[in-house]
Specification:
The complex is a heterodimer of chains A (498) and B (506). Chain A has 498 residues and is of the alpha/beta class. Chain A folds into two domains: 214 residues, Growth Hormone, Chain: A (Up-down Bundle), CATH 1.20.1250; 240 residues, Vaccinia Virus protein VP39 (Rossmann fold). Chain A has 16 helices and eleven strands. Chain A has a seven-stranded mixed sheet, sandwiched between helices. Chain A has a four-stranded antiparallel sheet with strand order 1-2-3-4, with no helix packed on it. In chain A, helix 1 packs antiparallel against helix 2, helix 1 runs antiparallel to helix 4 and helix 3 packs across helix 5. The longest helix of chain A has 54 residues. Helices cover 32% and strands 22% of the residues of chain B. In chain B, the strands form five sheets. An eight-stranded mixed sheet of chain B has the order 1-20-16-19-18-17-9-10. In chain B, strands 2, 3, 12, 13, 14, 15 and 21 form a seven-stranded mixed sheet that branches. A two-stranded antiparallel ribbon of chain B has the order 4-5. Chain B has a domain of 353 residues: FAD/NAD(P)-binding domain, CATH 3.50.50. Chain B is of the alpha/beta class. The longest helix of chain B has 22 residues. In chain B, helix 3 runs parallel beside helix 9, helix 5 packs across helix 8 and helix 6 crosses helix 8. Chain B is globular. The chains are: A alpha/beta (498), B alpha/beta (506). Chains A and B meet through helix 11, helix 12 and helix 13 of A and loops of B.
């Protein structure tokens, strides 16, 4: 009987640690700040265990009976703790309160277990053996749990089902105890029935866990979200703070939902509104669909071709409710064709002509991206431009990266285009620049689509004026064989950050 | 399977602490394009079958490398199409051969052409033909993209191959002084490409000493400077400075303007030029035609290849000149034609390896490596996202005599070279073995002519051209250095001379 007894100690200890880890991990996931969450959860848990141990002295009779009940209770509370916390986070304001209350309850119950067990077996062994054996298996169980949790349980089962599995183990230990200590029980049958009920409940819970998670997760994302994914091409992170949604690609901010309308209106309208009867528009980059949203405001535009490298990016912005709300489901419009391809080879191989072309790539932070800011690239893009058409290039900040901005303008000139640089203020970015280019003179548009929040006829001319601190600099053109822009850009931002 | 306890502890313990052997990717590959066998048939004077057929052409070109293809290009460009070009291998190109796999083309030998100077008029004409030079502008897509070259030294990368990191005052002073000397030679105007247009007997003394001795005599002893000079000679001539004529060493640095643009390159290296030339002259070419004998006839020569006798009025012999004694009767024994053995390997990489933080470059060199480093075939890709690639790894076997290293090339198996190459790359790419899925290796016993001491002003070289009135030699080895521009020059010149003589008759 000895070894069986001590195995139950081991299992009980493992369960106790798993609940603690589940609580700490969930709190870190949902609220963030893992150091704080783990510290406070562990502290509270250990303190509650102390309370449990202290309380154990008030239990005088029916030790086995009470032990079985404690195990069952712990099985239920611990087993459902994870699901309960997820739902609490999703549907209530009081996540922290419920978290610490739950941790207290579980801690007290776990604190009661070992003292009671020791007293149950005290007459069968020497005191010093009881202490030695029980504590040995207690710590062994803890070790096992702490290894299983990150390696097997979380990746394979997830948090909800892991907790339930260990709830099941608690209940199993309870059932088992009714046989192990049958001699010390008066009415084991009633206890066993209770054990069956709890076991069935937890079993059903495991089967239905997926439903619980998806219910909870939907609500978590609607409330506060940290979305991160390593796609084949880039590291994509979406953050939300209050009503501000931000997209980061490889740690570079792409937009903030609070002021992106300034950026995207400025990117599209000064050029597109100046093209007479634009029918076909091309966007290179811009997988977020925000420039598309602006272009769709022109009813005469029949087709919009969007070429973006990353299918996960365009998929995300076609399907995620918060993002489709932001881009007005622009990527789902019948007028839009999304092509996931590398821009330069696509531009080289496609024969079509467009009346307006938006070139909206991430800043030239490396040599790979730098290829998309070269004379060769702009020449290839310009071949797609109809005679009356314009193209516009996002050209980084003329304030923080003044050399880079004027380098891009010079590169477009070198590609044989007339250039019309302009700039806007986007609070989350700072002063930002664009270069409009074409094969003809630019005249400010007679009118803009209705309902714009930033671009207006009256304000337009100011955008094309550069104050002395952003005024033109003489820069060399960026070519594939020199990539001066990448180095210039690096120096520009180095100057700012020092 | 039953594990003994001891075994279990060993493997389990090792696995736990991460000491178990990393599983290595299996690397496929073999020797490719071997031409030893055919060469040795000639050397050993194996008897070839008698000719069964006779074909007649006014002009026969032997050798489908850059020289032969350029001769053909000139003939066709002048409207002359009645000729045949015989190539020994199944694939033409010679030292401008290329290979292809499912995602990229890659070079097997020469992989770039420096921006041609004003004297290289034939090269400029060709590049205008091929759309490389348009209205005086070099096509941006054909110039090597940045970052171009990098050197690994003292545990870090630097831009460019000329050492610029960790130089002492003395090193710097010597680099500067040497550059001043080269600059003087450059201004003198006798170190030109093509070499023939400038070479002057006033510099003949420089051909009588080795480049190593010349450097020593000029007082150069900076370790980094001497490494760089050695690298340059290994790279262009397959020889150490000690085995290179000082004239040729100086020519390397003094024949071209320091050019900020360039060089010109393509994924398949100079194979791109071969392909463009083949588009223009391919219909005149026959591959797998090993010429085994050339005999004089009353009105020209007969060229025997396979079971065919090609009767020609003129022969443009663009194959390496060292083959001549085995093909022509009464051909003088050659002393001044020394060739360097080389090895190139093409490595297919499933991903780019870790590179100590650096972005991939076009050309990568490691200080003090016995090899020449490698070139990345995907570097000229216009894509922003790259995963798989092919690296062409170059190794001029410059140490020891060419005969010894040729024997080494024959003796060692593929695995030996594969390991040597991986170890060399491991110096800078720790996880290279996890990235390479295939390595094909090409061994070349006579890869390029070596400008050994005395070879540039060699009498023998001049005499060869007068060997037979109807045979025009055109290989780049006539110049004593094996570069694209020389090959093209001799090919075009030979074609023009043939045209002039035929023209008188037509």
């Amino acid at each position: 009987m000895g070894i069986l007894l001590f195995i139950s100690v081991l299992l009980v200890a493992a369960c106790g640690l798993i609940y603690e880890l589940v609580a700490g991990t969930l709190a870190s996931y949902l609220v963030g700040d893992s150091v704080f969450q783990f510290s406070t959860v562990i502290g509270t848990y250990l303190f509650a265990m102390g309370i449990g141990s202290a309380l154990s002295r008030y239990i005088h009779r029916g030790l086995v009976h009470r032990f079985v009940w404690i195990e069952l209770l712990l099985g239920v509370v611990g087993g459902f703790s994870s699901a309960l916390l997820m739902l609490a986070f999703a549907f209530t304001q009081g996540f922290e309160l419920i978290l610490y209350a739950l941790v207290m309850v579980m801690g007290i119950l776990v604190g009661l277990e070992i003292p009671l067990l020791m007293r149950i077996v005290k007459d069968r062994y020497h005191f010093r053996d009881v202490i030695a054996h029980v504590l040995t298996f207690d710590y062994l169980g803890a070790l096992g749990a702490s290894l299983l949790f990150p390696i097997l349980l979380v990746p394979r089962l997830g948090l909800v089902r892991s907790a339930m599995l260990f709830g099941l183990i608690n209940a199993a230990v309870a059932l088992w105890s009714t046989f192990l200590f049958a001699s010390q029980l008066t009415r084991p049958r009633g206890l066993r029935a209770a054990c069956f009920v709890v076991l069935c409940g937890l079993g059903a819970g495991i089967a239905e866990a997926r439903y619980i998670t998806s219910t909870a997760e939907d609500n978590i994302y609607a409330d506060e979200i940290i979305f991160a994914r390593d796609t084949h091409y880039q590291h994509l992170v979406l953050t939300r703070f209050k009503d501000d949604l931000r997209l980061f690609l490889n740690s570079h901010l792409q937009f903030s939902s609070r002021d992106e309308y300034r950026y995207h209106e400025a990117l599209v309208h000064p050029g597109l509104a100046a093209v007479p009867a634009p029918r076909h528009v091309l966007i290179l980059g811009g997988g977020d669909g925000l420039a598309v949203r602006e272009i769709l405001k022109y009813p005469q535009v029949e087709s919009i071709t969007l070429v973006d490298l990353d299918p996960e990016m365009t998929k995300l912005f076609s399907s995620h409710p918060m993002l489709t709300k932001l881009n007005d489901k622009s990527l789902l419009s019948a007028r839009v064709q999304v092509i996931n391809a590398d821009a330069f080879p696509w531009v080289d191989s496609n024969p079509d002509r467009f009346d307006f072309i938006v070139v909206d790539f991430p800043d030239p932070t490396n040599y790979s991206l730098g290829k998309l800011y070269t004379v060769a690239f702009y020449r290839a893009v310009a071949r797609h431009l109809s005679t009356q058409g314009f193209l516009v290039v996002q050209s980084t900040s003329p304030m923080f990266a003044r050399d880079s901005f004027w380098c891009i303008a010079q590169t477009l000139k070198q590609a044989g285009l007339q250039t019309y640089p302009y700039h806007v203020y986007v609070p989350s970015f700072g002063e930002w620049g664009f270069v409009l280019a074409g094969m003809r003179d630019y005249a400010p548009p007679a009118q803009f689509p209705a309902g714009l929040r930033f671009i207006s006829k009256d304000g337009l001319s100011a955008l094309f004026q550069f104050p002395p601190d952003m005024s033109p600099l003489s820069m060399p053109a960026n070519e594939l064989n020199n990539q001066v822009l990448v180095r210039t850009y690096e120096n520009d931002w180095k100057d700012i950050s020092h | 399977m039953k594990l003994g306890r001891r075994k279990f502890l060993e493997t389990g313990g090792a696995a736990l602490v991460g000491l178990s052997l990393k599983s290595e990717r299996r690397i496929e590959g073999s020797f490719v394009n071997d031409s030893f066998q055919m060469g040795h048939f000639l050397r050993d004077r194996v008897s070839f079958p008698p000719a069964k057929r006779i074909e007649k052409f006014p002009v026969v070109i032997v050798g489908g490398g850059i020289a032969g293809l350029s001769a053909a290009w000139r003939l066709r460009k002048r409207g002359f199409t009645d000729f045949v070009l015989l190539e020994m291998n199944s694939r033409p190109g010679g030292n401008a051969r290329w290979g292809e796999n499912e995602f990229t083309a890659y070079p097997w030998a020469a992989h770039y052409v420096p921006i041609p100077g004003p004297k290289a008029t034939y090269v400029r004409e060709l590049f205008e033909d091929l759309g490389v030079l348009k209205n005086g502008q070099w096509e941006e897509r054909y110039l090597a993209f940045a970052p171009q070259e990098r050197l690994f030294l003292y545990g870090r990368w630097q831009d460019g191959i000329e050492p610029a990191v960790g130089l002492t005052q003395k090193d710097r002073e010597q680099f500067q002084r040497l550059e001043n000397l080269f600059s003087g030679f450059r201004k003198g105007g006798s170190f030109t490409i093509p070499l023939e247009l400038g070479r002057s007997s006033k510099d003949e003394a420089l051909d009588r000493i080795s480049f190593a001795n010349w450097l020593r005599d000029q007082g150069f002893d900076s370790r980094l400077l001497l490494w760089y000079m050695n690298y340059a000679c290994r790279d262009d001539y397959g020889a150490l400075t000690a085995d290179t004529s000082a004239w040729a060493g100086i020519h390397y640095f003094s024949s071209r303007e320091p050019e900020e643009k360039g060089p010109l390159t393509w994924p398949e290296g100079n194979g791109w030029i071969t392909r463009r030339l083949l588009e223009r002259v391919g219909q005149n070419m026959r591959t797998n035609q090993m010429v085994h004998r050339v005999t004089p006839t009353p009105r020209g020569v007969s060229v025997f290849a396979g079971d065919t006798e090609f009767r020609a009025e003129f022969l443009i012999f663009a194959a390496p000149t060292f083959l001549s004694p085995y093909l022509f009767e009464n051909f003088p024994h050659l002393r001044d034609f020394v060739y360097s053995p080389w090895l190139t390997a093409n490595l297919t990489l499933e991903r780019y390896p870790e590179s100590r933080g650096a972005e991939p470059s076009w050309d990568t060199v490691v200080l003090d490596s016995p090899t020449l480093g490698y070139v990345d075939a995907m570097h000229q890709s216009l894509r922003t996202h790259l995963d798989r690639t092919v690296w062409t790894f170059y190794w001029a076997l410059a140490e020891g005599s060419p005969a010894q290293t040729r024997q080494l090339l024959l003796d060692k198996d593929w695995s030996y070279w594969k390991e040597a190459i991986l170890r060399d790359l491991e110096r800078v790419h720790r996880d290279i073995r996890q990235c390479v899925s295939r390595m094909d290796i090409m061994r070349m016993g006579h890869a390029m002519v070596r400008p050994a001491v005395g070879s540039v002003f060699s009498e023998e070289r001049r005499h060869i051209r007068t060997f037979h009135d109807r045979v025009l030699f055109a290989n780049s080895d006539l110049s004593g250095i094996s570069i694209f521009e020389e090959a093209q020059y001799h090919g075009v010149e030979a074609a023009q001379r043939v045209l002039a003589r035929l023209g008188g008759k037509l």
